[in-house]
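Page 37, top half.
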Amino acid sequence: MLKYLTRGARLRAGPVRHGQFSRTKELGEPIDLIWPCTNSGDGDGSAFIRVTESGLAVWEGPPFGIPALQTVPINLHQTIDLSLGLHGMIAEMHEGPPPAGVRLIASDTVALTVVSNPVLAAVGLPTIDGILAPTSIFSDRIRAIPVSWVCGNTGGGPGRARLRFVASPAAFMQGVVGTLVVIPGFFEVSLLLTLSPPILGGVGFTCVLTLEDDLAFPTILGTFQFTVLT
């Protein structure tokens, strides 16, 4: 009489090795959940990682083959696309291919805080005295010169920016530092500045307009050079 031997996998989860199960991540940044799985059986098996929040699946990784008598690090690589704030989630290791799996091997908590810092940059070029990006403008030494420049924020958190103007020779045309303006996340704001007219006629002034953030040592987000003729 023939006897048939059935080989089977015996899977168990190892410890999490990198501490990313409690982590603060930037919105849009990737996260890797790495969880080793050991097969102590005499047959090959497979396993995958699923992450849930409030009982609903948030992420699910591909199945990894676990050969007999081997340990394989299972990886779930995911881009952070969750809402800002703290997410209390559960990481689960399941035997078998997704979506159903065969059985739950192990579970662990995931504390993920999602943040988003401001990412500021100048949008386009400035408008000076009603002209978009002029190389030179004429001033009659009577009226002020209006300036505008759009600042965009592609990050999720609010930032602040301002315009700064300097002229040379500085003794005859005043420099101006604009007010800091809040740029909400994923938004664009037009920053405004008013330049005083030159004091001296018959002179060409070399002028530099910059858009900067509010750091102690400001980052220049954009710069534009032009000439004021009187």
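Page 37, bottom half:
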Amino acid sequence: MTVNGQIEENGVVLVVAGFIPASEKRGTRNAVEFNIIGGVIERSVENTIVVKNRSHDISEAPVLDLNGEAVEERGDALKGKAAAILYRNGQILSVKIFPLEQVED
């Protein structure tokens, strides 16, 4: 649903949240876990980036820039840029790469 051109996501969250207690009563878990890890890319080699001292294999995930276009750069070209890594149930769904703005004194 859109309101004034913006996507309304609250209805989806409430619908999903409504299913979780019912499914737990039956002994099954249908919950989906999302995690976002963000930070500066400390190291980058081939299809692996290190953010917050944790290695992330990005070979199977789309790596996108701010405009949603594919980032073909790998290795040292990614070092020092900011990244937001979206996980779903422990698997990487996508990676967003952001340039860091330099602050001048």
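Margin note: The helical segments are 10-25.
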